[in-house]
């Protein structure tokens, strides 16, 4: 059975939840974490989204990435390992006590194009309310078209994200 996607209105508590989670992560990861950023829809004021925080963490190398596994697990995260088609990305999830997913962590070994893209996409949405509104419309359209299936949703909204990223990372002339 596929998991059902849950989109809802922006919650002003999302930045507070991120701040609390970052406050747990910083001391646990120490110097291994070069940066901890709030990304995804919950990081964009006013943008509807899933009530799951997306956090991106940058580390300098594979040794630091490996050193993060045990502290993350001690904080209740499940390590999913290298994830997707980016070997520089490691993935973690954390559920609450009721088994509901509350956080996704995308850990990147720098340099990582996906790290730059996540931050650039977030910043573009924050800077342009019309773009954020168009993205919200697209997310609902996609969710309905895929029957509210989480995995299919992630794939189907990809073209919108790629179009935005293409405007942000124009080739040098």
Short account of what is shown:
The chain is about 45% helix and about 20% strand.
Name the descriptors.
173 residues, alpha+beta, Beta Polymerase, domain 2, five-stranded mixed beta sheet, 7 helices, 21% strand
CATH names the topology as Beta Polymerase, domain 2
Q: What is the assigned CATH homologous superfamily? A: Beta Polymerase, domain 2
CATH C-level class: Alpha Beta
- Count of the separate structural domains: 1
Biggest sheet, in brief? 5 strands, mixed
Strand content: 15-25%
> What distance lies between the first and last C-alpha atoms, to the nearest angstrom?
49 Å
Kindly state the percentage of residues in helix. 40-55%
Structural commentary:
It is built from seven helices and five strands. It has 173 residues and is α+β, with helices and mostly antiparallel strands. It has a single domain (14-168), classed as Beta Polymerase, domain 2. It has a five-stranded mixed beta sheet, sandwiched between helices. A hairpin with a 2-residue loop joins strand 3 (78-83) and strand 4. Helix 4 packs across helix 5 and helix 4 crosses helix 7 (158-168). The longest helix is centred in the C-terminal third of the chain and has 17 residues, at 129-145. The chain starts with 13 loop residues before the first helix and ends in a 5-residue tail after the last helix. The mean pLDDT is 93.
């Amino acid at each position: 059975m596929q998991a059902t996607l849950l989109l809802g209105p922006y919650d002003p508590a999302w930045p507070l939840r991120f701040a609390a989670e970052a406050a747990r992560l910083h001391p646990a990861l120490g110097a291994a974490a070069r940066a901890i950023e709030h990304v995804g829809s919950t990081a964009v004021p006013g943008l509807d989204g899933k009530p799951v925080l997306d956090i991106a963490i940058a580390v300098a190398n594979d040794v630091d990435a490996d050193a993060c596994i045990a502290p993350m697990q001690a904080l209740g995260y499940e390590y999913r390992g290298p994830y997707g088609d980016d070997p520089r990305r490691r993935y973690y999830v954390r559920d609450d006590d009721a088994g509901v997913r509350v956080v996704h962590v995308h850990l990147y070994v720098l340099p990582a194009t996906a790290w730059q893209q996540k931050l650039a996409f977030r910043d573009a949405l924050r800077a342009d309310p019309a773009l954020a509104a168009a993205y919200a419309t697209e997310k609902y359209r996609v969710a309905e078209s895929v029957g509210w299936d989480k995995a299919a949703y992630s794939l189907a909204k990809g073209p919108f994200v790629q179009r935005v990223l293409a405007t942000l990372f124009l080739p040098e002339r």
